[in-house]
Amino acid sequence: MEKTYAIFLPSNLIFGVGTVEKVGEKTKELGKSKALIITDKGIVGAGLLERVLTPLEQAGVQAYIFDQIEPNPRDHTVVKAFEFGKKKECELIIGLGGGSPIDAAKAVGVLMSNPGPLQDYLRGTVVKNPLPPFIAIPTTAGTGSEVTQFSVITDTERSFKTGIGSPLLMPKVAIVDPSLMESMPPSLAAATGMDALTHAIEAFVSVNSQPFSDAMALHAIRLIGTYLRPSVANGSDQEARSQMAIASTLAGVAFSNAGVGLVHAMSHPLGGRFDVPHGVANAILLPFVMQFNLIARLERFGQVAQALGEKVEELSAVGAGKKAVEAVMQLSADIGIPGHLSGVSVKAEGLPLVAADAMNMKRAISCNPRVVKQEEIEKLYREAL
Ligand SMILES: [Fe+2]
Q: How many structural domains are present in the chain?
């Protein structure tokens, strides 16, 4: 074996029903007693903030709450959260929610310990200083942001969803408590679950795939193939919601280390320009991009089909790969995701612009197993429309 590999993980990952109660003691272990909680109004409304505030209070931690994070979080909201935390002299950050609050919390952490405006980091300035201690608590089984090195933020000047990537963004502690995910409505469980599937498949076929991320990606695909449908069907199915929480965390570790590909390059501009929810955009694009990528990674797509429960033993390599595409389409349809972008208000006239944006998602484009041109991206969008 000539290749070398590196893998980045949170220093402490805690999993299980009820583990959110450890947030107070973990904050204390990190030696801090003033926490900035970054979340959104939906989380507060669902009563999930209380689940974090009670143990913090019991541990004697003072908590300040910023609950104005929107979906596809914007740069100026991040700055607002940072200024609020600075004014309150917070020493530790807790990101509570789906990907948006956790990603926003990472960007706030960057501002707390690094000089210069946020725009610099969204446009490529390297993060040099370690962030303040950061605890991530996901409430969707989804984005995997609790275990990734990335923060995805919309640069409003350019209407461009971009991001910051650095191992320094990895949370110190990730608390994955499936009981926080029970209140997800079916549509959110479906969209975030398909985001996790996209992470796992894109990491598995990435040009930067490696044995450690492969193992996690493949197991995540198996779990999603088995548990996403029941998890969408019934939020009280604790087994299904717990297995999906494991799957999304595994998929998060996989793509944080192996990268994502063309699906994410194409879905982010749909978030930036049309505000399409991330998971829905991914779910619609995924089978079209898999079909395009098939010739680059035939054997691997056959493994994806198998992990999703398809019988492929008697099939040719091409036949097995195509089964993966069909299986993903069927899964999406079963859980109520629209099959086409026209179903989520994307307009044909905007496609040349989003295709140019997608081509600019350089990190994701460079991880995609098949080399792609802008005209091909535009053609894929049209097929998916
Ligand atoms: Fe994603």
A: 2
CA of 203 to the centre of ligand 1 (A): 11
Residue 280 has pLDDT above 80, yes or no: yes
Q: Which residues contact 222 (CB under 8 A, 6 or more apart)?
A: 307, 308
Q: Give me ligand 1 centre to Cα 146, in Å.
A: 12
Question: In Å, how far are 64, 169, 186, 200 from 175, measured between CA atoms?
Answer: 19, 16, 23, 20
Query: Residue 314, exposed/middle/buried by CB under 10 A (0-12, 13-18, 19+)?
Result: exposed
Residue ranges making up the domain that contains 360: 186-384
16 C-alpha vs ligand 1 centroid, how far in Å? 23
Is there a single domain that holds both residue 326 and residue 190?
A: yes
Rounded-to-integer distance, Cα 254 and Cα 331, Å:
21
Q: Beta partners for 163?
A: 152
Q: Of 103, 110, 60, which is closest to residue 85 (Cα–Cα)?
A: 110
Instruction: Give the per-residue pLDDT at 74.
Output: 94
**Predicted confidence (pLDDT) at residue 292 exceeds the cutoff of 90:** yes
Give the pLDDT band of residue 181 (cuts 50, 70, 90).
very high
Distance 281 CA to ligand 1 centre (A): 10
What does pLDDT average to over the chain? 95
Q: How far is the CA of 340 from the centre of ligand 1 (A)?
A: 18
Whether the per-residue pLDDT at 1 is higher than 70: the answer is: no
Segment 326-372, tens digit of pLDDT:
999 999 999 999 999 988 888 899 999 999 999 999 999 999 999 99
CA–centroid distance, 196 to ligand 1, in Å, is: 7
- Domain membership of residue 112 (yes or no) is yes
CB-based contacts of 264, cutoff 8 Å, min separation 6: 198, 202, 282, 361, 364
Q: How far is the CA of 25 from the centre of ligand 1 (A)?
A: 30
User: How far is Cα 192 from Cα 140, in angstroms, rounded to an integer?
Assistant: 7
* DSSP per residue, 63-122: EEEE--PPSS-BHHHHHHHHHHHHHTT--EEEEEESHHHHHHHHHHHHHHHS-S-HHHHH
User: Residues 288, 319: one domain?
Assistant: yes
pLDDT at residue 72, rounded to an integer: 86
Structure pTM?
Answer: 0.94
